[in-house]
Here is the input.
Amino acid sequence: MESRRLGRSGIAVSTICMGTMTFGNQADEKMSHRILDMSLEAGINFYDTAENYPVPPDEKYAGRTEEIFGRWMKGKNRDAIILATKVCGPSHGWIKGSQRAGMTALDRHNITRAIEASLRRLQTDYIDLYQTHWPDHGTPYDETMETLDELVRAGKVRILGCSNENAWGLMKSLAVSEMRDLARYETIQNNFSMNNRRFEDELAHVCRQEKVSLIPYSPLAGGVLTGKYQDGARPEGARFSNYLAMGGRQGVMAKRFVNDKSLASTARFMKIAAELDMSVTTLATAWSIQHDFVASTIVGATHADQVPDILKAGTVKLSPETMKAIDAVTKEIMYPMG
Here is the structure.
């Protein structure tokens, strides 16, 4: 599998990263370990987790995903694994961090407590990529970046990244790091898929100019691009089937992903995939990888049967004609996720 560097760092990762946010909830430990084994055998060396996982976040099982991953990694060659995890951003009306009784923020106290707890759960003495899970525009970036820099200097973290950040926040953080000679964000982890191309509006330009790598999550648009929600289907146990039933924040999120426009664009992408004799899962993952500002695309699975189609994307190169056909759908059905 091809590898690419993360930002300006010396860390090279596989172009597919295995995400873990369902481990310990939708996928039990045995299945999680099976998915991880399949990924490693296929040449994936990059794995992403978070102190807030599994989802939906809940204090009753907060950190379970890191524990599951730590037990799996214990028997592996640590040097061969590029491990990413995240510290929660501030709790507010939209999302509440599952750690520290929801009293989360990107200040020195919380970042320091978070890294120590993650290292214990993961049973390791360092994190390759440590990320802020969502931004804290209320805490000064000076304090956030200074604290993260201290972790790098202490050897607990190799490089830094952010997630769910906007163009202003990314540039603000980079400016602080440059002015104060601090470690900087080498990566940004944001939502990016054929159904959600907003990253290209502004952030892609920032990434190109500042040499920051996108490691996109949800290339399958939360599973919508697999086609499993077409024609009103609500598969039992599927993430958005559960979220729609839960209502509240999860229900609002589900409707952003599963709506008339997103299902219409998915139908068009399914047709393109069928003409290429590949699954739409493979098409969507390959499309995500095929951008100059992307280092590695984060995929996820709740069952081992889902893994093979995802892995195929690691060796697929879409033709210019196929990329143009996908662009045509984007222009006709603009911003299906709002």
